[in-house]
């Protein structure tokens, strides 16, 4: 089989969903028997302190015999989440200035702890 034929088989149908640091790839692929299946790949970008980056990828394979059950469970799970928590994202990590707010709040917490600790009576270990 020519390399070009192999590439055509692998790229039957694809869609990409970009979601922040994550990208989801949905691909229709063919088995050796020329039947179709789906792969879903999650790719997450991690940036190092030196500016370099790497990706972590996770992949699942969905075969036709599992489509209906998978779809039913996915529909049930997404409906459950939306019915119980709505569509609004409530995680503070999704806020633009999350780091600034988090570290600012954490600093305030530490300062409050220091003030409270300073109000206790000093104990000398020789007293114990």
Automatic annotation (TrEMBL):
GO terms for molecular function: purine-rich negative regulatory element binding; RNA polymerase II transcription regulatory region sequence-specific DNA binding. Pfam families: DUF3276. Keywords: DNA-binding. It comes from the Bacteria. Belongs to the PUR DNA-binding protein family. This is DNA-binding protein. It comes from Flavobacterium enshiense DK69. The lineage of its organism: Bacteria, Pseudomonadati, Bacteroidota, Flavobacteriia, Flavobacteriales.
